[in-house]
């Protein structure tokens, strides 16, 4: 059970802080909800407390793990799946997993593809969402601002492309 002030990750939305735990009656059923404030996009998400684990809510990684994620991002091998439909489906599975390392691999792959060939509208939206998920967790874990982390990610992608 989480408490107010805890930092958590909600898959498909990213990291946030539990701002409140509210009782709500929906369709005649009273239930407790975590109210999670997401720092990026200033969004609030409500998750039933008894189903939080079932939907993949988890603790935010620590600072050391955030450093490991950045290293993994740099070292990640990118996919070469040419079929966009198959690539899209596989990337969506990785994002939905809630695993920050999988999300980092998707972000890098799509950033590289965007720089080299451009992205379809669907993949551009996926990149934006995956970047938000990844960056929000690193922001919460490290306290480093969003823009600095995004710049660092693009710097690593550009460095790889210039060596390629």
Characterization of the model:
- The protein is α+β, with helices and mostly antiparallel strands and 164 residues long.
- The chain has 2 domains: 7-59, Thrombin, subunit H (Beta Barrel), CATH 2.40.10; 63-163, CarD-like, C-terminal domain (Methane Monooxygenase Hydroxylase, Chain G, domain 1, Up-down Bundle), CATH 1.20.58.
- It is 51% helix and 21% strand.
- Strands 4-3-2-1-5 form a 5-stranded antiparallel sheet.
- Strand 2 (14-26) and strand 3 (29-38) form a beta hairpin.
CATH class division of the largest domain: Mainly Alpha
User: What is the alpha-carbon Rg in Å?
Assistant: 17 Å
The CATH H-level superfamily of the largest domain is CarD-like, C-terminal domain
Distance between the termini: 47 Å
How is the main sheet built?
5 strands, antiparallel
Shape: globular
Identify the strand order in the major beta sheet.
Answer: 4-3-2-1-5
Order of helices and strands: EEEEEHHHHH
Beta-sheet strand percentage?
Answer: 15-25%
Helix content range of the residues, please? 40-55%
Tally of separate helices = 5
Number of strands: 5
């Amino acid at each position: 059970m989480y408490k107010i002030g805890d930092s958590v990750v909600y898959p498909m939305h990213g990291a946030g802080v539990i701002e409140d735990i509210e009782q709500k009656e929906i369709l005649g059923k009273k239930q407790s909800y975590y109210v999670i404030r997401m720092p990026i996009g200033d969004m609030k998400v409500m998750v039933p407390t008894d189903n939080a684990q079932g939907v993949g809510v988890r603790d935010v990684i620590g600072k050391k793990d955030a450093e490991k994620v950045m290293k993994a991002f740099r070292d990640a091998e990118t996919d070469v799946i040419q079929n966009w439909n198959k690539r899209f489906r596989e990337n969506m599975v990785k994002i939905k997993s809630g695993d920050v390392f999988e999300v980092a691999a998707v972000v890098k792959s799509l950033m590289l593809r965007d720089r080299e060939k451009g992205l379809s509208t669907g993949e551009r939206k996926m990149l934006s969402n995956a970047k938000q998920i990844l960056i929000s967790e690193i922001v919460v874990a490290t306290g480093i601002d969003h823009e600095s982390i995004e710049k660092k990610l693009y710097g690593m992608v550009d460095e790889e492309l210039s060596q390629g």
